[in-house]
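Q: Hi! First time doing this. I have a protein sequence and I read that you can turn it into a structure. Is that right? Here it is:
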Amino acid sequence: MALKATIYKADVQIADMDRHYYQDHSLTIARHPSETDERMMVRLLAFVRHAHAALSFAKGLSDVDEPDLWQKDLTGAIELWIDVGQPDDKRILKACGRAAQVIVYSYSSTSAIWWGQVGSRVERARNLTVLNIPSGASLALAALAKRSMQLQCTVQDGQIWVSGDDQTVQLDFETLKAPAQILR
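A: Yes, that's right. Below is the predicted 3D structure, encoded as structure tokens:
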């Protein structure tokens, strides 16, 4: 018998000063049986950073043809594809061909090794952004994971502060690859 996903509920208050986005979201997050708290919380963090009415959690680990999060326009075209972890170069390039913008959030202590292996193979992808979250910060974020969470998230100058249960985690991102600049 296959294991079922564990359901987490998160009430998230987002104050994004960089994008002037201020909303409350009640999220239901299905955690795949093979997924860790750390990975699930990085998915939640990616939602916070890109929060939008059309942004939704996708099947991710359960379906190789879907990202962890995505945003589609009204025609069904994929505007934003977000993967969490260390996808291989073929998956990244396939995503870059399907979506207008692709963002990968890497968070493991082995991120430098992974990026050393795939970085040169995805360099040509003009719509790709790869961000790394320091391992200590992602582990601190994982400590906030509970089946029912109330989180306050503040985004300012590219940094994110996530607060819950009298604990605050500050997250800074290291840009491993930025999208190519289009010359006009």
